[in-house]
């Protein structure tokens, strides 16, 4: 609707008489000149948009439009001119007066400017955003170099242990899980020594020191922010140096009344009333959106606007409105007043009087109080209305004039807490609905794919499932029979969700298959001899007469089918290559994993029975032996005959298809989560706008909070709730019924791998998506500019997008918090954060200086939110690190009766900590170290914030934060010499958001 332009400008543009944005008459003159030139044939060919659009000009009442009259119809609804629209857009973008163009106008900003120049032009808040990005970017780059030791350690651990990609894939291989897998296998063989414990302790200490350094860097930025603000205040002059904000004035207060009340402190330069003009804004927008020929519609809108404009003392309707009391309840009532003193000393004297008034909390003659004209003393906060009603004023430091949201002044600020409850509740409802959708999608994925095995737990030394002893698919003498035995089981449909009952942390942990260990050699508890085993093969697996599946080992359970799918997956998994640890021995079902899928075309030999036998140096071929191969297009798993031929090219087809499906679903879930994270931007802004704040700062602080909290929920709380297996909470719907009971080595493959993928995706996507408004602006120009009917409509199309600091800061704050939470497990987040800082720093500089409207002069509150979120994240990091580093599998020095390592009885029995056993972790030095850092961090941050809050409470008691004198010249002199940064006044027509709606002198501005 309304043109969104810049909300601040440098002093060189404030006083520029030739600025087409600052002087609407200049634009009007250009319209007249262009139209006249076209009429006489001396101008260049009109633009495409002007020639393709027929505009019927309404009768203006004059032969020639008068550009000096903003009420002139021909001026307001002139034919669209692209050259004027481009000038209109450029005027709203940052410009550099020191680099003038050929026509003398300020030139474009350079891509990169100094921090001091950024502070002068855009305010200390935005310039500090870039300072913060540079400091954090350099710091996280340094941490990345420090953690090269860790990354080398994980690489060595993966290579020496032969950890497969099924155990740890992609990003998880560079996590602490790699060290845990190696330590687990070494502890199994009883070879863990003090060197392993020292190496683990070094990792713990490096992590603790890195996070402490992050906290120290954040404290440095906190102090730097305040120093930067004070330094910028000393070298810049803006209207806030002369102005106070006054709330609590009567709705029908007059300018003279306010001047009379405050002139005790010095000469008054200006008084601007903030009014409830929301209805007037909506009507004015409708008027300017009308086409040039819609005269009757505009007249009706103007009549309606007349009812909503302020009523002056000389207005013919004033008597009627005052007698029936409508003045006080007028939609255009006064909400606040901005009193601008002629000198900085007058504002400072007013601040001191307010502070004394609050300290004494009452009227009366006090030392230093201001003196009235009659010689008496009175409290500055006591105001007597014209009707004799006493008012208690609320006087505070004035915000930047570009920070005001005039649309919302009609909404009571005292009820903002109620609106915040409603919007936060709506945000919570959205997150709950999103959680339900993700939970259903996750369960759907788990129901669609087969269980994923931990092959090192179902090999020859498996405690609960010994695949080679049941289905010896690697057998060199009887592989044909093993394939025939497992095929009917694998043919049955199971899923990861269905098999989760028998799996813990991704490993098979059910005793149901123990009686069948030895089935491959016809020597198991369930079938003690060959006759019993063969009888089962004849009728227990497949009914030979009916050709139907007979239920397997356990007819009333799917545990045997789940076990078969796990063994089948480990056999077909291509990640188990021949070159493994040690001397490159081929890993089979020996407790380390499966074998590589057989390749085509290799030679084979056959035993006496005709079954294929794998040569020691060659893989199994496509098919061999006297038995015929399955028909073309028919896999082994589609044939339930008891003795099918083994065909390596088709045996693993189901596994390959399921693997592709799993990868596709995993990518789809990542894309779905990413789209939700991006959609949170629009939802957060919409809900924050519904709170109707009176300033852009409050609006963007609300956006920042909502977005960062939502990112934390999406990246941390939601995945943990869906993947964790907490027995005490598993009865809750959808949550805490996952596959991970602890942060052991298997947790890294299931949770941290996906977490790391999303963290990297966010680090790349979030800076890039900050360019989406620029892209949308370009598309809007390309496809809609030819359809503009008036100059106002074309100006709206050409208006550049706003620079939204809140969304950028929220994305960075959210990523910073969830990265710090899990950096102990996934140090890869440090290079991710470095990449994000560089991305925002480079792309934002270019976007701000070349493609976006000049932003408001931020005061640093949004950056302060980012800074204050770090201590809580650091404390949470150390709390999580107690669990991550204190896990039993990580080699650790212990004290007291502490125990490290999960293997007992010479590597035959696995003993793990009970869920939630913090005491066991604290008896390991690896868990004790982060716990001590946690206590220290909480204590130090508690003392710091106690001091900070005491200072804020003291300021609140004083009521107004005294702003020191900075030696600013009188306001008239500053304005005349172009020394004022930002807007020259609080008037509605000086605000870039509204100046085109309410040009100075227009009928709609009467009384404003």
Summarize the structure.
The chain is mainly alpha-helical and 1008 residues long. The chain contains 34 helices and 16 strands.
Describe the structure in your own words.
By secondary structure, the protein is mainly alpha-helical. A 4-stranded antiparallel beta sheet has the order 4-5-3-8. It has a two-stranded antiparallel ribbon with strand order 1-2. It is elongated and about 110 Å long. The two termini are 22 Å apart.
State the low-pLDDT regions, or none. 1-65, 313-329, 362-368, 576-645
- Based on Cα principal axes, name the global outline: elongated
Number of helices: 34
End-to-end separation: 22 Å
Characteristics of this structure?
disordered N terminus, four-stranded antiparallel β-sheet, two-stranded antiparallel sheet, 16 strands, mainly alpha, 1008 residues
SSE topology sketch:
Elements: H1 11-14, H2 24-40, H3 48-52, H4 73-76, H5 82-91, E1 95-96, E2 107-108, H6 115-122, H7 124-146, H8 148-161, H9 176-188, H10 194-235, E3 243-247, H11 255-262, E4 268-275, H12 278-289, H13 295-308, H14 318-323, E5 334-341, H15 344-360, E6 382-384, E7 390-392, E8 394-397, H16 416-448, H17 467-470, H18 479-491, H19 496-499, E9 503-504, E10 507-508, H20 530-541, E11 542-543, E12 548-549, H21 559-572, H22 581-584, E13 605-606, E14 612-613, H23 648-651, H24 653-690, H25 696-723, H26 745-769, H27 772-784, H28 791-798, H29 805-822, H30 829-850, H31 861-885, E15 903-904, E16 909-910, H32 918-922, H33 925-958, H34 971-976
Antiparallel strand pairs: 1-2, 3-5, 3-8, 4-5, 6-7, 9-10, 11-12, 13-14, 15-16
Helix pairs in contact: 5-28, 6-7, 7-10, 7-30, 8-9, 9-26, 10-31, 10-33, 12-13, 16-24, 16-25, 24-25, 24-26, 25-26, 25-29, 26-29, 26-30, 29-30, 29-31, 31-33
């Amino acid at each position: 609707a309304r043109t969104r332009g810049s909300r601040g400008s440098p002093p060189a543009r404030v006083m520029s008489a030739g600025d087409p944005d600052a002087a609407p008459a200049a634009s009007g003159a250009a319209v007249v000149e262009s139209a006249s030139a076209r009429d006489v044939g001396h101008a260049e060919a009109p633009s495409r948009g002007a020639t393709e659009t027929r505009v019927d000009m309404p009768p203006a009442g004059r032969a020639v439009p008068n550009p000096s009259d903003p009420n002139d119809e021909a001026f307001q609804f002139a034919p669209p001119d692209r050259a004027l629209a481009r000038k209109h857009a450029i005027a709203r973008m940052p410009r550099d007066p020191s680099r003038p163009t050929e026509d003398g106008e300020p030139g474009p900003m350079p891509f990169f400017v100094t921090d001091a120049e950024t502070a002068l032009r855009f305010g200390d808040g935005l310039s500090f955003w870039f300072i913060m990005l540079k400091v954090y970017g350099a710091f996280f780059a340094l941490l990345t170099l420090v953690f090269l030791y860790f990354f080398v350690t994980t690489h060595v651990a993966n290579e020496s242990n032969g950890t497969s990609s099924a155990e740890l894939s992609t990003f998880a291989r560079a996590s602490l899980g790699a060290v845990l897998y190696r330590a687990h296998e070494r502890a199994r063989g009883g070879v863990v020594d003090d060197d392993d414990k020292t190496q683990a302790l070094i990792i713990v200490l490096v992590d603790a020191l890195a996070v402490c350094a992050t906290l120290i860097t954040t404290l440095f930025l906190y102090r730097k922010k305040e120093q930067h603000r004070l330094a910028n205040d000393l070298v810049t002059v803006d209207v806030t140096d002369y102005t106070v904000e006054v709330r609590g004035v009567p709705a029908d207060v007059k300018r003279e009344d306010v001047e009379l009340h405050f002139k005790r402190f010095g000469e008054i330069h200006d008084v601007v009333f903030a009014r409830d003009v929301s209805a007037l804004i909506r009507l004015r927008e409708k008027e300017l959106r009308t086409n040039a020929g819609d005269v009757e519609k505009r007249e009706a809108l103007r009549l309606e606007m007349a009812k909503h404009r302020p009523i002056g003392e000389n207005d013919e309707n004033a008597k009627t409105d005052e007698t029936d009391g409508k003045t006080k309840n007028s939609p255009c009532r006064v909400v606040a007043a901005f009193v601008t003193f002629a000198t900085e000393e007058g504002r400072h004297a007013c601040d001191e009087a307010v502070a004394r008034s609050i300290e004494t909390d009452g009227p009366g003659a006090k030392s230093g109080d201001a003196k009235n004209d009659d010689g008496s003393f009175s409290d500055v906060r006591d105001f007597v209305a014209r009707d004799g009603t006493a008012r208690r004023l609320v006087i505070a430091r004035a915000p930047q004039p570009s920070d005001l949201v005039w649309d919302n002044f009609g909404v009571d600020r005292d009820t903002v807490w109620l609106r915040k409850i409603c919007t936060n509740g709506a945000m919570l409802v959205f997150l709950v609905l999103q959680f339900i959708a993700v939970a259903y999608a996750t369960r759907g994925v788990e129901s669609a794919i087969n269980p994923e095995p931990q092959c090192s737990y179902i090999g020859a030394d498996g405690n609960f499932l010994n695949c080679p002893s049941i289905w010896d698919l690697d057998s060199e003498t009887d592989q044909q029979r093993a394939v025939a035995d497992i095929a009917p089981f694998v043919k049955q449909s199971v899923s990861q969700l269905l098999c989760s009952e028998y799996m813990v942390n991704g490993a098979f942990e059910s005793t149901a298959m123990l009686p069948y260990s030895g089935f491959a050699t016809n020597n198991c508890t369930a079938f003690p001899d060959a006759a019993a085993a063969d009888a089962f093969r004849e009728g227990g697996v497949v009914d030979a007469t009916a050709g139907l599946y007979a239920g397997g080992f356990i007819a009333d359970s799917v545990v045997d089918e789940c076990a078969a799918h796990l063994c089948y997956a480990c056999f077909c998994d291509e990640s188990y290559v021949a070159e493994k640890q040690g001397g490159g021995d081929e890993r089979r079902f020996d407790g380390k994993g499966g074998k590589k899928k057989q390749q085509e075309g290799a030679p084979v030999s056959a035993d006496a029975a005709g079954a294929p036998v794998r040569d020691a140096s060659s893989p199994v071929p496509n098919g061999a032996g006297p038995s015929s191969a399955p028909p073309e297009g028919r896999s082994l798993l589609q044939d339930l005959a008891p003795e099918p031929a083994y065909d390596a090219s088709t045996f693993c087809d189901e596994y390959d298809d399921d693997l592709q499906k799993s990868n596709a679903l995993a990518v789809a879930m990542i894309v779905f989560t990413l789209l939700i994270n991006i959609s949170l931007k629009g939802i957060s802004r919409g809900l924050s706008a519904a709170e109707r704040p009176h300033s852009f700062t409050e609006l963007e602080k609300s956006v920042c909070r909502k977005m960062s909290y939502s990112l934390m929920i999406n990246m941390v709380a939601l995945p943990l709730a869906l993947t964790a297996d907490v027995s005490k909470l598993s009865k809750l719907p959808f949550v805490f019924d996952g596959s991970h009971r602890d942060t052991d080595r298997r947790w890294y493959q299931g949770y941290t791998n996906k977490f790391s993928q999303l963290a990297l995706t966010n680090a790349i996507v979030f800076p890039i998506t900050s360019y989406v408004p620029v892209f949308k602006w370009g598309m809007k120009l390309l496809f809609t500019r030819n359809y503009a009917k008036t100059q106002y409509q074309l100006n709206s199309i050409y208006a550049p997008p706003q620079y939204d600091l809140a969304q950028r800061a929220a994305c960075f704050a959210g990523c910073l918090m969830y990265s710090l939470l899990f950096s102990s497990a996934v140090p890869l987040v440090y290079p991710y954060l470095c990449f994000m800082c560089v991305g925002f720093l480079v792309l934002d500089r270019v976007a701000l200086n070349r493609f976006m409207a000049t932003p408001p002069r931020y005061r640093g509150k949004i950056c302060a939110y980012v800074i204050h979120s770090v201590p809580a994240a650091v404390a949470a990091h150390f709390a999580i690190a107690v669990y991550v580093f204190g896990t039993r599998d990580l080699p650790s020095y212990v004290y007291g009766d502490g125990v490290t390592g999960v293997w007992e009885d010479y590597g035959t029995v696995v003993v793990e900590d009970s869920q939630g056993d913090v005491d066991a972790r604290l008896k390991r030095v690896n868990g004790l170290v982060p716990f001590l850092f946690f206590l220290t961090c909480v204590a130090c941050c508690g003392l710091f914030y106690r001091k900070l809050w005491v200072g804020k409470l003291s300021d609140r008691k004083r009521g107004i934060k005294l702003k020191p004198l900075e030696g600013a010249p009188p306001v008239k002199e500053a304005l005349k010499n172009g020394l004022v940064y930002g807007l020259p006044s609080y008037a509605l027509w000086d605000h870039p958001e509204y100046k085109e709606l309410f040009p100075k002198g227009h009928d709609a501005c009467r009384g404003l």
